[in-house]
Amino acid sequence: MIATVIGSAFLILGAVIIASAAIGLVKLPDLYTRTSAIGTAAGLGVALMIVGVVVIDFSWLSLLKGVIAVTAQLLTSAIGSFALARAGYLSGSRPAPITVPDELAHDSMREPGPVSES
Question: What is the domain extent for residue 46?
Answer without folding.
Answer: 2-106
